[in-house]
Amino acid sequence: MSLIDRLTAPGPKRILTLDGGGVRGAITLGYLKRLETILAEQNNKPDFVLSDYFDLIGGTSTGSILASCISLGMKVDDIKVNYFNVINKIFGKKYSQWNVIPHKAAQKIVNVLFSKADYDSRPIEEALQMMFKDRTLGSSDFKSGLCIITKRADTNSTWPLLNHPHGKYFDSADGNNKDIPLWKAVRASAAAPTYFIPQVMHVGGGTSEAAFVDGGMTMANNPALQTLMVATLSGFPFKWKMGADNILLVSLGTGVKIYSKGYQEITAFQQFEWASQIPDMLMQDASWFNQIILQWLSNSPAAWTIDGEIGNLDGDTVTGDGKGVLSYLRYNTWLTKDYLDALMSKSYTMEAVDSFNEMDRSSNCEELFAISSAAAKKEMVPEHFPDTFKI
Predict the structure, then answer these.
(1) Element (DSSP H or E) covering residue 251
(2) Do 154 and 69 form a contact (C-beta atoms < 8 A)?
(3) Residue 258: predicted pLDDT
(4) What residues pair up with 157 in beta bridges, in sequence order?
(5) For the packed helices 182-189 and 62-71, what is the interaxial angle rounded to 10 degrees?
(6) Given 44, 161, 200, 327, which is the most exposed site by the fewest CB atoms within 10 A?
(7) Under 8 Å between Cβ of 330 and 294
(8) Phi first, then psi: what are they for 120, rounded to 5°?
C-alpha cells in the first residue's frame, strides 16, 4: 500500500507522538521498546515495527529524530543504536568553554553573552545526514505519516512539517516542503536556543530562506495536541474523523521533574536567574496544559493526576457521556529521587537525579533507558490497547 493510500484509507487511525527533551529522549526509547513488544504480540506479527501500527508519527526536537526513524520503518533496537550514536556526537563536547564562574545560572548567562551557542552545529548536522542520507520530506521511503514540529523564528510561528502529499505547502506555489531534506527538518526541530544556532532552510512560497529553532519553543514540546489537530482539522490534509473508536493517540514523554524551591530562593532571584528559569517553567506549563486538554477530551485508562483540585479528570470528559472524542494514552516517568529509588530498587544520589534532568548529559543515556524500561513495564499494559485498533 502506498503512503497516500494508507493515509486516506477508511477505518480507525492510530497516532504516536514523542516529546522533546534532548538526551532524555533515551527515556522515550524505553517506552517505545515496551510498546513495540506489546503490539507485536497483540497483532501476532514477529517482524512487527511500529510503523505497521501507527498511521501518523509526530515528534518535537529529540522526538523528531525518533519519529522520523519510526516512520521510515526501523525497529526500536536499531533506532536505539543510531540514536545513542547521534546523541554522543552531538553533546560530546561543548563548542564554547567559559568555565570561570562557579554559579551555574551565571555561567549560562556568560555563555549566552559571549557565544552564539553551547555546541557546534557540525556534529549534529553530520550525524543526521549520516542517519537520514539524502531523503527529503517527499521521500518514498516513509511507511507512515510524519509530523515534525519546529518554530519559524523570523515569523514567530509554529510549523508542523508534514510528509502528506496533499498538504497545502507540500508541493505548490505556496511552498515546496517535499524538497526539504529530512535531516534539515529534524535539525530545525532540534535547534534549541543557546544549545545550537538556528537552522536556515529554503521554504518557497516567495520567501527564499527562513530561520527555524527548536519546536520546544512553542506550545508543542509535547506534540500530542498539535499532532491531533494536524490529523483532524480541515485545514490540514489528513482530515481524520474524531471519535473514541476512530482515533487512538499514544503520547510518550521524556521524564517529569518536580519544580520545588523555597520562597526565599525565589524572591532572591536576580534577573539572570529568572532568565535561566523561565523557559523551563513555560515548557512544563505547556506540557501539563496539553495533558489536561487531552484527558478532558478522552476517558483514558492511563490518566495522570493533574493536581489536588481536578485530579485525573475522571468523569469530566468534554462529551459528557464518559466516552470522549478520542482514545488517549500518555506514558512518562517521574525523575525524582524517591520515585527512582523505589522503581529501580537502589539509592541514587541527588547529584545523579539532578543530572538525569539535564538535557545534554549524554553519559546518562543507558541509565535513562533502563529507568524508562522499568517504568514502561509497570505502566504500559496490553489492556490499554483496544481490539478496535488492531491491524
Answers:
(1) strand 247-252
(2) no
(3) 80
(4) 152
(5) 150
(6) 44
(7) yes
(8) -65, 140
256, HSE (Cβ side, Cα atoms, 13 Å):
19
DSSP state of 242: P
Averages of pLDDT over each 10 residues, the chain, 391 residues: 93 97 95 98 92 98 97 97 90 56 56 61 88 96 97 91 94 86 94 80 76 86 97 97 97 89 77 72 86 95 92 89 92 96 96 92 95 98 95 90
Q: Which three cell numbers stand for residue 135?
A: 531523503
Q: Strand, coil or helix: what is 157?
A: strand
For the chain, the farthest-separated pair of C-alpha atoms sits apart, in whole angstroms, at: 61
* Contact (Cβ atoms closer than 8 angstroms) between residue 71 and residue 160: no
DSSP designation for 249? E
- Which whole-number Å values give the CA distances from 294 to 86, 195, 248, 300, in the listed order? 32, 30, 12, 9
C-alpha grid cell, residue 182? 529530512
Contact 59, 18 (CB under 8 A): yes
Output phi, psi for 193, to 5 deg.
Answer: -55, 140
Let me know: does 365 contact 23? Beta carbons within 8 Å: yes
Which amino acid makes up residue 82?
A: N
Contact 76, 50 (CB under 8 A): yes
What is the CA 363 to chain-centroid distance, rounded? 20
In this structure, are residues 249 and 302 in contact, taking their beta carbons and an 8 Å threshold?
Answer: no
SS (H, E, C) 165-194: CCCCCCCECCECHHHCEHHHHHHHHCCCCC
**Stretch (H or E) spanning 12:** none
Q: Mark residue 173 as left, alpha or beta (left: phi above 0; alpha: psi -120 to 50; beta: remaining).
A: alpha
Residue type, 190: A
pLDDT of residue 95: 54
Q: Enumerate residues 6+ apart whose C-beta is below 8 A from 338.
A: none
Nearest CA-CA partner of 175 in 238, 237, 239: 237
CA dist 64 and 191 (Å) reads: 11
Helix (H) or strand (E) holding 18: strand 13-18
